[in-house]
Specification:
By secondary structure, the chain is of the alpha/beta class. The protein has ten helices and seven strands. 42% of the residues lie in helices and 13% in strands. It has a five-stranded parallel beta sheet with strand order 5-4-1-6-7. Helix 1 packs antiparallel against helix 5. Pfam families: HAD_2. InterPro entries: HAD-like_sf, HAD-SF_hydro_IA, HAD_2, HAD_sf, PGP-like_dom2. It comes from Bacteroides sedimenti.
């Protein structure tokens, strides 16, 4: 780790939270929503899911459009449960690591995500040691609130403009090579961990 680094920007899916794409696809297929498979990408979504993650449609609109696309009755809860099955867990050692990193760095979260995933994650994954999600990060940047998606340059430029951080002082961890390439083009240092990697080793 470069000793000049002052800021860390972390991805959520695949870096903090473990993902299970096949489980999610099977959950939707069990309801007859086979169309989800072609929309669901580990790094950035397609079609209806992309519109949800960019904040172009609301959660209610997503429910309605999915039902219309599939042509079958599915309750909002059934849809949300199937969609949330994509997210498995945030291991507690990663939560402990975040708290440790905050002692030395300004730690930011930058995620392509949506309200359904995020609300569940805040409730289920970050309720740890009587803490809340805000205790783990200096500031949180979510695509559906920003109406921007990685790997666009604009989303990184927004983060830097809002926080005032400089690219040369910043280290970005994301499991998508495309996202890291964009960050590198702006002068940000990057690391792309493998699936389920304990990437804490880069700070030792």
């Amino acid at each position: 780790m470069n000793h000049k680094i002052k800021n860390l920007i972390l991805d959520f899916g695949g870096v903090l939270v473990d993902l299970d794409r096949s489980r999610c696809i099977e959950s939707f297929k069990a309801m007859g929503a086979d169309c989800i498979e072609e929309m669901l990408n580990p790094y950035y979504q397609q079609g209806l899911l992309m519109k949800l993650e960019k904040g172009e449609i609301t959660t209610d609109q997503f429910h309605d459009e999915l039902r219309q696309t599939v042509g079958k009755e599915m309750s909002d809860k059934q849809i949300d449960d199937a969609w949330n099955s994509f997210l498995v867990n945030v291991p507690t050692y990663k939560l402990d690591l975040l708290l440790k990193l905050r002692e030395h760095y300004s730690v930011f979260l930058l995620s392509n995500t949506n309200a359904i995933h995020w609300e569940m994650s805040c409730e289920r994954f970050f309720s740890y040691k009587n803490l809340q999600v805000e205790d783990f990060f200096e500031k949180i940047f979510l695509s559906y609130q920003m109406h921007q998606l990685k790997p666009s340059k604009e989303i990184f430029e927004t983060v830097m403009a809002v926080t005032g951080i400089q690219p040369e002082d910043t280290f970005f961890i994301d499991d998508s090579e495309a996202n890291c390439i964009t960050a590198q083009s702006l002068g940000i240092h990057t690391y792309t961990p493998k699936a389920h990697e304990d990437w804490g080793h880069i700070f030792k």
